[in-house]
Design a protein that fits this description.
Strand content: under 5%
Shape: elongated
Radius of gyration: 21 Å
Order of helices and strands: HH
Number of helices: 2
Number of domains: 1
Helix content: 25-40%
Number of strands: 0
Length: about 80
């Protein structure tokens, strides 16, 4: 999304390409992007509206990633293997 509509670039892992791309941005030579559709600060409101509409009232409570019932209270990406 931020590559196709925004200003991010994929330049790979080559240090020469990374530095060259950074220099272009710092010199003001990067392409102009636009604000993607729905990037208006109201995503949470839209998500809640869908959940309220689609999830039946009184349905079983699902554990959240920070729920103590799941263990550490950390999300999977924060857990050490």
């Amino acid at each position: 999304m931020t590559v196709t509509e925004g200003t991010n670039q994929i330049v790979g892992q080559d240090p020469v390409r990374i530095v060259a791309a950074a220099r272009e941005v710092l010199a003001g030579k990067s392409h102009t992007g636009r604000v993607p559709r729905f990037w208006d600060g109201h995503a949470a409101e839209r998500i809640i509206a869908v959940l309220l509409r689609e999830v039946p009232q009184g349905s079983e409570r699902l554990p959240l990633p920070s729920d103590p019932a799941l263990g550490t209270g950390k999300t999977a990406r924060h857990r050490r293997l």
